[in-house]
Amino acid sequence: MRLSRYLLPTLKENPVEAQIVSHRLMLRAGMIRQTAAGIYTWLPLGYRVLRKIEQIVREEQDRAGAQELLMPTLQNSDLWKESGRYDAYGPEMLRITDRHDRVLVYGPTAEEVINDIARNELKSYKETPKILYNIQWKFRDEVRPRFGVMRGREFLMKDAYSFDLTYEGAKHSYNKMFVAYLRTFARCGVRAIPMKASTGPIGGDLSHEFIVLAETGEEQVYCHKDYLAMPIPSEDVDYDSDLEPIYNQWTSLYAATEDKYDEAEAKAVGDNLLSARGIEVGQVFYYGKKYSNPMNVAVAGEDGKPVLIEGGCYGIGVSRLMGAIIEACHDDNGIIWPESVAPFKVGLVNLGTGKEVADKACDDLYAKLTKAGVEVLYDDRDERAGVKFSTMDLIGLPYQLIVGLRGLEKGVVELKNRKTGERREMSPEDAVAFLTR
Ligand code: P5A
User: Looking at 285, 301, 335, which one is the last position of a domain?
Assistant: First the structure.
């Protein structure tokens, strides 16, 4: 992509409305713009990152055996009356009346819709277990939307739902999602620690929140410091047989959100206790028959008699995760994207725009890298070097390939690593080889 043609409205100054660094940087880097309280347009740069995160989430759900579908954003309110949550959910749920005076709700979550699908489409115990998920916009009319995409009203969620015959089956599904989450967040470049949590309006009696530690986090959390170094399951993990030991290891030490804080347990951890602020990037719930009971979600068991489904649900705040990544990965100059979610891998900086030698060298590098499948943002603007450098640092691409007239005379370009700040001179060929390796 040529920057001269790209919609990248960066801001020099810190926007006054932004209180935390991720919100400031997403506005300054031209990634999002607010259109109403807690509702955002994703500009091209922000949308690229959102799609990268979404794809990692999708790959790890698929790896764990979950199946993707897509549910609507607008839901039939009758389903919510059946589950008993229509009144219980309260003013956070946006209710909309259509021209026939029927009430629709903009889904804050989708237990009702998926359980309606399950009761109609799953007939026999032979069709269990199943885990179904979608990545879809949700709406919660939060009292205080704030911190940009961290607590929005409209936000992107991956929500998965499991359908099992027995408690043991449901716990196995829970473990699958638990392990998939460890891998998902690690691949996004952050460490999320599973902590015992309360279940709120979703319900159920077993739940973990996945927490990224950050000073600006909205939650107070407590955990053993060894969680900071616990090993992440490899991609070869066997989702049928390897799960129990991983779950046991990751729940063997103390880790709890404020709701589940236990003074005696915390005391026993002694000096190893971390008391910190955290961002909830995901939450998993085992809720048993909470929805299958009122909605009559059952399949025929081996003896032909109906068996109520044992259920669980598993959420990831896809859009919030972007904010959490930025909270964890930035410096005074801007964002430092982990390569896995970076909007482009490399920024090609032409310091001699308009000079034939420089333009030619850059066009050549741009063509070669693009052809090799490397995502390049090419700063071909007629701007001062300082402006180009600060733009690149702000938007945080992992590498900057800097092409100047003096270097070209010597036959070299400069490759800068955004994270370490390290700069190396090399031939254009070596730079291409390095970036395509
Ligand atoms: C799990 C999936 C649920 O809704 N039902 C379906 C369950 N869980 S949850 O914890 O309430 O939400 C899942 C994740 O969504 C993110 N999230 C938000 N992100 C941005 N703005 C919000 N207002 C918001 N509310 C929830 C969180 O990451 C949460 O873990």
Answer: 335
> In this model, does residue 329 exceed pLDDT 90?
yes
Least confident of 213-217, 373-377, 409-413: 213-217
Question: Which single residue is written with the structure tokens 């990248």?
Answer: 8
Candidate from 150, 154, 283, 286 with most ligand 1 atoms within 8 A of CB, to mutate: 283
Q: Which 3-state string (H, E, C) describes 155-172?
A: EEEEEEEEEECCHHHHHH
Number of structural domains found in the chain: 2
Last residue of a domain, one of 335, 357, 380: 335
> Could you tell me the residue range of the domain that residue 381 belongs to?
346-435
Produce one character per residue of 321-349: b if its CB has 16 or more CB atoms within 10 Å, e if not. bbbbbbbbbbeeebbbbbeebbbbbbbbb
Q: How far is the CA of 262 from the centre of ligand 1 (A)?
A: 24
Mean predicted confidence (pLDDT) in 371-381: 98
Average pLDDT over residues 194-208: 90
Rounded to the nearest angstrom, the distance between the alpha carbon of 161 and the centre of ligand 1 is 14
- The residue whose CA has the least distance to atom 2 of ligand 1 is 315
Indicate the pTM of the whole model: 0.97
Which domain CATH number covers 325?
3.30.930.10
For ligand 1, residues with CB inside 6 Å are 109, 140, 142, 151-152, 155, 157, 159, 202, 280-283, 313-315, 317, 319-320
